[in-house]
Amino acid sequence: MYIYGVNKDLKESVTYAHGIEAVILDLGGVIVPLDYDRTYRLFQERFEGVSADTFCGGRIQDEVFNLYETGRIDSEAFRLSFRDPDGLAADPAWFQDAWNAMILSLPADRIDWLRRLKSRTRLFLYSNINSTHFSFLNRLFAEQSSGQFSDLFEKAYFSHLFGVRKPNLDGFRRILSENGLDPSRTLFVDDGLHHVEAARKLGIRGEHLKPGETVERLIASFGLLD
Q: What digits encode the pLDDT tens for the residues 132-172?
């Protein structure tokens, strides 16, 4: 099914496949490949009380990660919340490198793909992220392109600046309201099933990006960008 819509970037009429007028993408695991184990192993070897079940990125995670990802504590407080068996905090440079180790790359071809997708539909980002990863992401982008990473989207929502993280429904509600989005015509893609399930509660067309799948192929299946 095709409907007629308006792309706010192009200021011209375009057709949308499957009734989709807007796309909201997750960042880590969708746009940027991640390996949480790289950081988890470093933390587990050094700090007490680090559990795979509650480490960053899971359905359940320790409250310190929630606080950091919603901007309620800064990077120094986050670092100091981890202590070795002697009660000592890690060196700041080591900690930053270990924390960033989970971010594998920012593929250049994906940057080009995002630009093309933005030219075809309203494109948004909604990421659970923190100030350290945010700075690292922008450095990776600056190595490959001019401008800001957020320029790839009509609007980018970073949880540490937004003050709300997925799967909180308030974040999705605000994004829909602020941008005049119809949930039934908004596609949301995330590699976290619990985030997708939350979006679906509001009528958003949530799609779970499973291991081994690519966001490019999923988006192409909706006819938004061949």
A: 999 999 999 999 999 999 999 999 999 999 999 999 999 99
Q: Which helix (H) or strand (E) holds 111?
A: helix 108-118
Please, how many CA atoms are within 13 Å of residue 45, restricted to the half-sphere of its CB? Answer: 8
- Assign 76 to helix, strand or coil: helix
The CATH number of the structural domain formed by 2-34+105-221 is 3.40.50.1000
Q: Which of 175, 210, 212, 173 is nearest to 189 (CA)?
A: 210
Domain locations along the chain: 2-34+105-221, 36-100
Beta bridge partners of 6: 13
Cα–Cα separations (whole angstroms), residue 9 to 23, 157, 193, 196: 14, 18, 30, 26
Question: Which pTM was predicted?
Answer: 0.91
Q: CA 217 → CA 72, 114, 189, 210, distances in Å?
A: 36, 13, 12, 12
CA distance linking residue 15 with residue 4, whole number of Å: 5
* pLDDT tens digit sequence for 52-101: 999 998 889 999 999 999 999 999 999 999 999 999 999 999 999 999 99
Map residue 127 onto helix, strand or coil: strand
Residues in the chain: 226
SS3 71: coil
Radius of gyration in angstroms for the set of CA atoms belonging to the chain, rounded to a whole number: 18
Give the orientation angle of helix 92-100 with respect to helix 36-46, to 10 degrees. 150
